[in-house]
Specification:
Shape: globular
Number of helices: 11
Structural class: alpha+beta
Strand content: 5-15%
Length: 327
């Protein structure tokens, strides 16, 4: 008598319903208004793209919602710009007031400015991620991020210096340590995400890629990135939900080459096409299994940022969503 095999747990997927024609019209209007307003409209243009993409992606037949505002992004940028101008003015004052013959002091001041810039960039990226999450909702429940941008920046820069000293050999340890800090501080309402990954699990693959970088002209890293992404998904949880990503290095390489050709052949006007390809590619390979008790999820009581992204705009880091590029 044949024993029936256990049924496999059904998986669920996210879906992107956006249409290229719609997004292209939005992009062209945004581009025109950027020119007319000397790029001041940039913040509202970014918001319009996000509103369209979020409202056209769904999970379990419910759409997402983006609640950010262009004015919030502008205020955040202006506040950050004033802070950066003050920092640069102080650095210029110190340098010009220092005797040229005091070389060690100049070197120390240069190192301090470089270190401060890296700290600000790391903090900016973490804060921008928090803003984006806080303005994302599903079933009226918002995502959020706890933790400290300053603590993240100190960890990022400290481990970055160690990675530099080891000629990059500490990179996977640093990546997954920082990734753990971000994911473990991510919330969907009152329910936290959890990440249990460790860069040491991937170290053999990283070392192989490291050694084969020159012989493969760097292409080996597409296969490493695919393996790394699959590993991250498998070690991430949201309550009873488990994640799985199954694309290959060849598929990732094809996506990136296709996007590059689109960008070159359309002189940048094909950006919406590349953006949609990124979302559809990820959602086609991302699977969610397990259950989560939605009735027990409460709205987050964490205070949300009042302005958006700021420093991340200055450092060119704002709006990265799931590694898909800036939106």
């Amino acid at each position: 008598m044949q024993v029936p095999s256990p049924e496999k747990t059904p998986y669920r997927q996210l879906h992107q319903h956006g249409r290229l024609g719609d997004l292209l019209v939005i992009h062209l209007i945004n581009t025109l208004l950027r020119w007319v307003t000397l790029n001041i409209y940039h913040f509202w243009a970014k918001t319009r793209i996000r509103e369209y993409l979020w409202s056209h992606q769904s999970f379990e037949d419910d759409r997402f919602e983006y609640t950010g505002r262009g004015g919030e992004l502008l205020v955040g940028f202006l506040n950050a710009a004033l802070a950066m101008i003050g920092l640069l003015a102080l650095a210029a004052l110190i340098f010009t007031g220092t005797a040229p013959s005091v070389d060690p002091l100049l070197v120390g001041l240069g190192a301090a400015v470089y270190l401060a810039g890296n700290l600000l960039a790391a903090a900016a990226g973490y804060s921008a991620r928090g803003y984006l999450l806080s303005r994302t909702r599903w079933r009226s429940i918002r995502f959020g991020q706890t933790g400290s941008a300053a603590n993240f920046a100190l960890r990022s820069v400290g481990l970055g210096l160690l990675t530099l000293i080891t000629l990059g050999l500490l990179w996977p340890i640093r990546r997954h340590y920082l990734l753990g800090y971000k994911i473990n501080n991510t919330r969907f309402g009152s329910t936290p995400f959890a990440y249990g990954g460790d860069g040491r699990d991937l170290y053999a693959w990283f070392l192989l890629s490291y050694l084969l970088t020159i012989p493969t002209l760097g292409l080996i890293w597409f296969w490493y990135m695919a393996r790394d992404t699959a590993y991250v998904a498998s070690r991430t949880r949201l309550g009873g939900l488990r994640f799985e990503i199954d694309y290959t290095g060849a598929q990732l390489l094809g996506l990136r080459l296709g996007n590059l050709l689109i960008t070159i052949l359309t002189f940048g006007l094909g950006y919406p096409w590349a953006l949609l390809r990124n979302f559809r590619f990820l959602f086609a390979h991302l699977r969610l299994e397990g259950e989560i008790d939605y009735e027990r999820i409460l709205q987050s009581q964490e205070e949300t940022p009042r302005s958006g992204e700021g420093l991340a705009e200055i450092f060119g880091m704002s709006g990265s969503f799931l590694g898909l590029g800036r939106v």
